[in-house]
Amino acid sequence: MEWNYLDAYIEETGEQLSRLEQLLLELEEKPEQSDVLNEIFRIMHTLKGSSATMGFSEVADFSHNLESLFDKLRKGELGVNDELIDFFFECLDALRKMITAAIKGEVYDGNAAKLVDIINNLIHTGSSGENIKWQVLVRINSDCMMKTARALVIVKYLEEMGNILSIDPPLDVLIREKLECEEISAVVEIQRDIEDVVLGLKNIPDVENVEIRPVCRNEADVKDVKDVKDVKINLSMQYKLEDLKRLKEALMRADVVKLEFGEKSNMSLALLQLILAARRENKVIRCEKGGGPVAKMLKLMGVF
């Protein structure tokens, strides 16, 4: 590889990435701008070609996937909303790191595969006219005096917004046992603008927080969305090194992380790092049972 070609690539991609960031900010202000979508599509096409020429196949493949997604957007087959804009900025950050690694001759160890899954899911949704499946987590204020009633209102709202594929706690358990739950977790096929759905949830009295993200699966491992993977971590247990290794592998595949606290919860540095890493990967983290100082510390850190 000639150094002058690499120099030209570095300069060109630097300009393109800066322009992409500017265009995404413009798109955030006015999502309907077709000229912005067209320019982003052209930049992705150029990035794909130049990266392939340099032998940076991972960058080229990722750019190709984004190019296909923006082709759907510019043709009006998909709509732009705030959730999608946030996702684009996440893709831009990954693209920057991927290009930096390629230039240095290093292996990019980020979350490209996960992002590509989401991109393909969005492309498929736009092509088939199907609804996007979303993982929704709604947290009820701990001071609420009518948690069961609020939970039922949330469930009713989600039923009106789309098709509930799974929900925890189940509706019959919620009604029969009158659970004083503070969290509702559901997988829903949303039939409306996701921004309106989130706004509606936040406007329900005593709702403290709403988290929502797309649910996707690898094409080679298609499963019913009811099989959303979860991992339980019992903080009353002592985890050995081999246990932590297995837990790390499980967390990589998980969608939801459920934390259980006992009277004598333990929080080693290694375990804390695993939980924080899961949070950075946008896993849904829930306090499943118990509380205490460790739970309070994690809540203050914004883990759940």
UniProtKB/TrEMBL annotation:
A GO molecular function held by the record: ATP binding
Modified residue annotations for Phosphohistidine: 45
Keyword tags: ATP-binding, Nucleotide-binding, Phosphoprotein, Transferase, Two-component regulatory system
InterPro entries: Bact_Chemotaxis_CheA, CheA-like_P2_sf, CheA_P2-bd, CheY-binding_CheA, HPT_dom_sf, Sig_transdc_His_kin_Hpt_dom
CDD domains referenced in this protein's UniProt entry, alphabetically: HPT (cd00088)
Record-annotated HPt domain positions: 1-102
Domain of life: Bacteria
UniProt EC number: 2.7.13.3
Gene3D superfamilies: Histidine kinase CheA-like, P2 response regulator-binding domain (3.30.70.1110), HPT domain (1.20.120.160)
PANTHER family from the UniProt entry: CHEMOTAXIS PROTEIN CHEA, SENSOR HISTIDINE KINASE CHEA
Descriptive protein name: Chemotaxis protein CheA
Lineage: Bacteria, Bacillati, Bacillota, Clostridia, Thermosediminibacterales
Gene: cheA_3
